[in-house]
Amino acid sequence: MNKTENQKAWLFVLPVVLLVAFNAIIPLMTVVNYSVQETFGDNTFFWSGVMWFEQVLRSERFHDALGRQLFFTFMILVIEVPLGVAIALAMPRKGPWVSVCLVLMALPLLIPWNVVGAMWNIFALPDIGLLGRMLNGMGFDYNFTRQPFSAWFTLILMDVWHWTSLVVLLTYAGLVSIPDAYYQAAKIDGARSWAILRYIQLPKLKRVLTIAILLRFMDSFNIYTEPFVLTGGGPGNATTLLSIDLVKIALGQFDLGPAAAMSLVYFLIILLLSWIFYTLMMRNEAQQ
Amino acid sequence: MAKVTLKALRHSYMDDPRTDADWALKTLDVDWQDGGAYALLGPSGCGKTTLLNIISGLLKPTEGQVLFDGKDVTGLPPDQRHIAQVFQFPVVYDTMTVYDNLAFPLRNRGASEADVDARVREIADMLDLTATLDRRAAGLTADGKQKISLGRGLVRSDVNVIMFDEPLTVIDPHLKWQLRSKLKELHQRVRITMIYVTHDQTEALTFADQVVVMNEGQVVQIGTPEELFERPQHTFVGHFIGSPGMNVLPCKIRDGSAVLGGIAVPTSNAARYQGTGHRLEIGVRPEFVDFADDGVPVKITKVSDAGRFRIVDTAHELGRIKLLIGEGREIPSDMAFLRFDPERTQVYADGWIVE
């Protein structure tokens, strides 16, 4: 057989290659470039090998930020996923209230992130904010600008308010797509609501929940704007998450090398954890 | 096991039904014997699924009663009616094994594990599911899943009625036949009242002892497959059952006999006509029409071969007439005369047979 020489097909791929190149590969390579070099200004660079990586991985500061980040993401997932599922289950499936509920749920998602941060900052101020005044009035000693616990409490509450809706909407979409016959069969089989949740709803929601968990994981692990506006990472370093720390190093201290190395490590951690999540959640799918 | 009685049943999906068309189910009185195999046959949208859901308790009728063995169950939810249902699309609990699927209705009712085990194995054996008991239900083919659905009904010993809502829709054609005979065999073995909803006449006629034909929310005829074929009570039954369907042509009645386009045609029932109908029609199945030396004049328009017989399409001045002619018979080429079998030819007034 004669092999036809035809390389024109590459032209069709070209737009995507260019897009990905400018969008991801070139910026990423710039960071890789910085991460293996040392500079003393004047735009002169020296090869420094894996020095920055070693420094980042050994740095106490990085470990602390990573720990705080993991704790934050863990709390977000543990609270938002079950809460989101519970709210979606409680929402009506038919009637005029459906659209009311959907709009109410979508509202927080429509607010720009820095506005959310600013809103909650003012809302939680101990002297003039509604939440702050109320908590203090109820006898709690609450001041998120001074106490780490109060700062964390506010930070998590803000994220729950802002992002639980995403889990709710995804879960709700999954719930309404379950055919009525399943509920009818369950009724006939005498299943109680717990059994319906366990054997019909949760299994049918598996795919959307996987997406919801992955999205919430990646977004909360990358979060920057809202905590930056709310606490700025404080009090002290109490709420300095990875992204906030990264910006401090890169733009505050202008340490390009360490910041680049940290970015790459940060990126690889997200990639690795996402892969683990996905594999674990899709493990049973493959067996069928 | 139970006898099912529907008493003056009516249902509308509207809050305030006014006209006849607002009723999805028009007044219905039906008696189904204990242990019978019944089919509900009708085109899509004729109300058969509505009726099924009323019997299973998933829907509450606007008016009337549902009785099981004379006991009023109209207000009872599905789980207290002791019924089972197999749906159009297979419903299985994906995360469970086949065994757990079959055990589910029993465990929900608090049966002991020993009873569950004995019962599940017995039913699995009946349905040829024993080999797959330990497999995940999600991995089975559509017909396997439908068997599980049916099995979940059969495991319960208290089941009054098993209902099937077009259960073979998603099954491959060659397995349809297998599953259908399996169903028939099972019915003979367990003798539970079964109600089978379908729009496929073959399924209805092969499964049921008695077929209930529905159209536009009302029952048009209840009868054995033979009765539906030989003496349709309504022109709709004539059209809907049989392939090709019954020939229906407008006619007049003069001196107690039917007249089709000026020619008197002997029928089984024209003499009984009392003169009340607005629209008179004559109905005869293609099987009971034959060529003759004189009679109804027609022009032959098409002959199609259907294997053991041929379908001849003819044009009469009042409409088309089809007839079935056996292999090897000669067919006139252009003009011909037709004769209808008088015993199998009926007159219909406003769609209903004249009695």
Describe the model.
The complex is a heterodimer of chains A (288) and B (355). Chain A has 288 residues and is an all-alpha fold. The model of chain A has no long low-confidence stretch (mean pLDDT 87). Chain A contains twelve helices and two strands; from the N terminus they run αββααααααααααα. Chain A has one domain: Orthogonal Bundle (MetI-like fold). Chain A has a two-stranded antiparallel sheet with strand order 1-2. With 355 residues, chain B is α+β, with helices and mostly antiparallel strands. Chain B is built from nine helices and 22 strands. In chain B, the strands form five sheets. Chain B has a six-stranded mixed β-sheet with strand order 6-7-8-3-9-10, with helices on both faces. A five-stranded antiparallel β-sheet of chain B has the order 16-20-17-18-19, with no helix packed on it. A four-stranded antiparallel β-sheet of chain B has the order 2-1-4-5, with helices on one face. In chain B, strand 9 and strand 10 form a beta hairpin. In chain B, helix 3 crosses helix 4 and helix 3 runs parallel beside helix 5.
Write a brief structural summary:
The complex is a heterodimer of chains A (288) and B (355). Chain A is mainly alpha-helical.
Q: What overall geometry of chain A do the principal axes of the alpha carbons give? A: flat
Distance, first to last CA of chain B? 36 Å
CATH superfamily of chain A: MetI-like
Strand content of chain A is: under 5%
Summarize the SSE layout with pairings.
The complex is a heterodimer of chains A (288) and B (355).
Chain A lengths: L8 H27 L1 E3 L5 E3 L3 H8 L1 H31 L6 H14 L2 H12 L5 H8 L10 H29 L3 H9 L4 H30 L2 H6 L11 H11 L3 H32 L1
Antiparallel strand pairs in A: 1-2
Chain B lengths: L3 E8 L13 E8 L4 E5 L6 H9 L6 E6 L2 E2 L5 H4 L1 E4 L11 H11 L4 H14 L15 H13 L6 E5 L7 H18 L2 E6 L2 H7 L2 E6 L2 E6 L1 H6 L4 H6 L6 E4 L1 E3 L2 E4 L2 E3 L14 E5 L4 E4 L3 E10 L3 E8 L2 E8 L8 E6 L4 E5 L2 E2 L2
Parallel strand pairs in B: 3-8, 3-9, 6-7, 7-8
Antiparallel strand pairs in B: 1-2, 1-4, 4-5, 9-10, 11-15, 12-13, 13-14, 15-21, 16-20, 17-18, 17-20, 18-19, 21-22
Helix pairs in contact in B: 3-4, 3-5
